[in-house]
Amino acid sequence: MRKMFTLLSLLVVASMALAACGGTSTQAPATGGDATQAPGDTSAPSGFHAADTTTLVVAESEVGIDTLDPALAYDTASGEIIQNVYETLVFYDGDATDKFVPQLASEMPTVSADGTTYTFKIRSGVKFHNGDVMTPSDVAYSFQRGLLQGGTSSPQWLLTEPFYGVGVDDVSLLVDPEGNLYDDREALSAADPATLVAACEQTKAAIVADDAAGTVTMTLKQAWGPFLPTIAQTWGSVMDQKWVVENGGWDGSCDTWQNFYGMASADDPLSGIANGTGAFTLDKFANGEEIDLVRFADYWREPSKLERVIFKQVPEWGTRFAMMQAGDADLATVPSANRSQMDALVGIYQVFDTASNTYGPEQEVCGYDETALGAAKFTPCAAGETGNGGQFRLRIGRPVISMDVLLSNWNIATSEESPNPYIGSGKLDGNGIPADFFSDVHIRKAFGYCFDFDTLLNDVFSGEAVQSFQLPLAGMPGYFPDTPHYTFDLAQCEAEFKLADLDKDGIAAGDDPEGDVWTTGFRVQMAYNQGNSTRQTIAEILAGNLASVNELFLVETLGLPWPAYLRSQRAKQLPLMTGGWQEDIHDPHNWYQPYTTGTYGGRQSLPDDVKAQFRDILERGVSETDPAKRAEIYKEANTLYYDLAVGIPLEVTTSHGFSQRWLQGVVLNPILSGNYYYPMYKE
Amino acid sequence: MTTYIIRRLLLVPVLLFGVTVLIFAMLQFLSPVERTALYVRDFPKNDKAIEGLIKRYGFDQPIYVQYWTWLVGKVDKTSGVREGGILFGNFGYSRSASQPVAELIARRFPNTLDLTIWTVAPMILIGIWMGVQAAVHHNGFIDQAARVFSIVGTSFPTFVFGLLMLLIFYANLHWFSPGRLSDAYNQVVDSSSFTHYTSLLTFDALLNGRFDIFLDALRHMFLPILTLSYISWATFLRVTRGSMLETLRMEYVTTARAMGLPERDVIFKHAQPNAMLPVLTLAGFSIVGLLGGVLITETVFNYPGIGSAAARAATSLDVVAMLGFALFNGLILIVANLVVDVLYAFVDPRVRLS
Question: pTM above 0.95?
Fold first, then answer.
């Protein structure tokens, strides 16, 4: 027995030694390929050379794809794969978030004078990855299928509004306008068959294909300013109807659509497979481990220079860092806490220039100061100086497409049966707040003036964020860099508290002889979900400044487990919260809708009259197609949002992205879902 | 013995039932909305999605209804397709892995099994050898060195040791890469030309005649094996040493020596077999631990085994997947315990008699 053990041990050790001797340069099977240059190649040679120029490896902390069905996918990770496998009628023009070029349409659409009818000429000769030729019918089917599949977890609400009307956020509302059928396929299927068919036919009538003419005509319920941005995203991807049906998807019949309504990724037959027209085909789908895309040889443009793109899940940062150092990964997820490790190895960098809205020229790094913030860490080389030779490239300083906003609840839920634990006594007695505490505009404004934005930007985001003055982001109608906004001003904060009238006796708190918030003080809890350090710090900044204005003002910060936080928010019990939003499309409607009449408006319990004011502005804004006129309309929204202090926009973080220096052709467009690999190549 | 095994086997479903009931009961402390939080990572963009999830997963149903649905699934009235039902082999859909739990386990477990097979021999044999050497050279230099080694091994966190190995052997020396296989070989393994006879990569590579792939797989497993072995050697060393010292003091060993048997025979033929009983128990638990997935090691070395999948499910509060892993681990534990008990009975006549 012992001899056997010894033999076995020797065998294992010998195998290991043999394996170790194998070294790192494993013999890869030759895949060949031409070196034709993909569009978008404008970068100067880096002087750095990859060992393998055909395969791009992305080491991600998580390769978790919810679904590959473009009609259902609503997360960035899924969007990145879909964006590279499927294509849309129009697509973003390079780095621009507001300019479009035809993709599967052969030219930009013609639009009727009233802005409600878009006619797309469909590109001919385009093949799907399975060899099927794309037709206008496929295009129409793709949009019809998405709309009819609907569901509140999907992005389809972005399309239902232009096609079915403002406020219609799901196809089920065509069957039951009361909204009792949301996400309930069983109940929807039990509805009147004629109503079901009518909903489907309405959808089909709005999107009509003419295969002979090679066109698709889309008729909107009303003019829709952001229609092109809406269909340029992954939910506007074109699918192969024949392939979808073969794989268990909707057959296109108005008698069956309800069977596919409210699809979830778990029961969607297209969640783990893909067949688009994009530059890459899905080769391997090991979700949670690795996803491989390979170059599509029959692509309608010249094939990509990259032959293979591999997304590897590498949860541990140390491992990802080692892979980047070893050159085994070209791109990697870098947590903000670990940026300094990568910064120290940066050899070339580009800083975003807000004025020109583009990244500045590449600069070699000659000095690095780890104590400085943002781009100031790097000293560019002077003329004639040689750079430090660091292996990484850094692009830094471009505002991203998400924002945090400080939100208050205007009508905090509480009752005798279910007392609210976050508002103390529930009265203005110094030991709590009344439920309508934040319905007083001066209280909301005071909170805005008491927020120290610089501390947030510098301490939490290490200087890599900018204060948001308004909801619209730069580059969209309604963005005005000089718009009125709240600044950190303790004197103004105090003045606003003294103007408040919480006991509603008509006398401002600062002058009220019977006492009001200024003399009674208050106690309230600001909760955050445990682990979310940004929300925690925002609460702490606010608490500290309010206490410094008046020692009777007590904001207690409270970390809640995620389930409890969600429950409290759903029950509208949270008095104060930080609400984040990542835009779906680069348009002010996608900001004002959620923050006023939609998701956050509901969470803040905004009164109907306030919502009505915003609804009026938003309906005018979204149905206007002239960007200049839209800008003026959204300026009204900015003013109203500021005057009422509905929310206090806090910050937009800025980019800090690394890659290997040999990687070129990167499209730096923040609205894209992750990277667009077609133009990329490795030197 | 047969009756004993049958009795233990009959207990398996009862124990598994107990595990599921326990986990289900614990979940009932959360309200339907709180349980929905386990299915979303942040606030959904559309608030109505929460109600949709409650409806879809029946969180507002009584616990017995939910439990029954989990056991037998639910038939979609429109499509006639059965969704879920562990009794039908469907452990549900893992949100964190975005795939059915059964598929996830089926894909990940062979990797863990492969790693376990290659880890067991160096882990146990070298650990035992060091323990025996320490005992034989009691209080000598080798014993003292072994003690130090044991203390260092016990106190060295796996995470730190693993990252250190990665830093030295991958980032600096470029000898051993993380992951399961090199990208180029991955493509071969995924292609139709490679037959998956056993789903165990190293064995399949040999059966396909691809010694290069076999070596590449071993090269990727070297650091995980070294890490797992290192942290276990300390334990095996201490247990073996203690057991050996105790055995060496027994009268029958003294008798053997008095009879003039060579010291080598006394130690290896007479003392060591009896000293191995506690080591056998330890080995059993160690193997069960490896089969259940080695969370930290798999994560550090990006090894796609069941441990890293379970870790991800746990950090994502993926209850469905966690239930699946709990059941699977329970099954492994029960079966492994059974095997150890049977082995014990074979090794130790006293167990058989009792």
Answer: no
Give kind and range of the element (H or E) at residue B54.
helix B48-57
In a domain, A339, yes or no: yes
Whether A18 is in a domain gets the answer no
- Residues A91, A290: contact at Cβ < 8 Å? no
Interface mutation vs chain A, best among B56, B108, B229, most A CBs within 10 Å: B56
Burial track A490-515 (b if 16+ CB lie within 10 A, e otherwise):
eebbbebbbbbbbbeeeeebbebeee
Q: How far apart are CA A175 and CA A192, in angstroms?
A: 8
Q: What is the pLDDT of residue A557?
A: 95
Q: Is residue A14 part of a domain?
A: no
Those of residues 312-351 in A touching chain B at CB distance below 8 A are 312-316, 318-319, 321-323, 325-326, 328
Phi, psi of A68, rounded to the nearest 5 degrees:
-100, 10
Same domain, A394 and A444: no
- Total domains in chain A come to 3
pLDDT band at A21 (very low <50, low <70, confident <90, very high): very low
| A502 shares its domain with A606 | yes
The minimal CB distance from B78 to the residues A24, A189, A264 is found for: A189
Do B56 and A183 count as a contact with CB atoms less than 8 A apart? yes
ipTM above 0.95, yes or no: no
Residue A598, min C-alpha distance to chain B (Å): 8
How far apart CA A607 and CA A376 sit, in angstroms, is: 46
Residue A117 main-chain phi, psi, to 5 deg:
-120, 125
Measured between beta carbons, the chain A residues lying within 8 angstroms of B167 are 318, 322
Separation CA A597–CA A475 (nearest Å): 23
**Does residue A132 have a pLDDT over 80?**
yes
**Does the residue A448 lie in any domain?**
yes
Look at phi and psi of residue A282 and say left if phi exceeds 0, alpha if psi is from -120 to 50, else beta. Answer: beta
Name the E strands within A234-307: 280-286, 290-295
Of A319, A570, A581, nearest to B178 by CB-CB distance is A319
Q: Quick one: pLDDT at residue A64?
A: 84
Which of 142-171 (A) contact B at CB < 8 A?
151-153, 157, 169-170
The helix/strand/coil state of A556 is strand
Question: Which of the listed residues A248, A265, A282 is the one where a domain comes to its end?
Answer: A265
Could you list the beta-strand ranges (E) of A116-200: 117-121
CATH number for the domain that contains residue A635: 3.10.105.10
Residue B192 in tokens = 């139709």
In sequence order, the 6+-apart residues with CB closer than 8 A to the CB of B19 are: B326, B327, B330
Q: Say if residue A413 is in the same domain as residue A367.
A: no
Establish if A67 touches chain B: CB-CB under 8 angstroms: yes
Calculate mean pLDDT across residues A98-116.
95
Q: How many of the other CB atoms lie within 10 Å of CB of A642? A: 21
CATH 1.10.3720.10 applies to domain B101-353: yes
What is the rounded average pLDDT for all residues in chain B?
85
What is the rounded end-to-end Cα distance, in angstroms, of chain B? 11
A529 and A418 in one domain?
Answer: yes
Confidence class for position B349, pLDDT limits 50, 70, 90:
low
Torsion of CA A377, A383, A387, A391, to 10 degrees: 80
Range(s) of the domain holding residue A381: 321-400+655-671
Looking from the CA of B204 toward its CB, the CA atoms found within 13 Å total: 17
Does A446 share its domain with A390?
A: no
DSSP E strand stretches across chain B: 74-75, 82-83, 93-94, 99-100
Name the band, by pLDDT with cuts 50, 70 and 90, for residue A562: confident
Residue ranges per domain, chain B?
A: 2-94, 101-353
Tell me: do A525 and A563 sit in the same domain: yes
Q: A355 and A428, same structural domain?
A: no
The residue assigned the tokens 């219609």 is A168
Q: Which two tokens stand for residue A36?
A: 């034709």
DSSP string spanning B215-231?
HHHHHHHHHHHHHHHHH
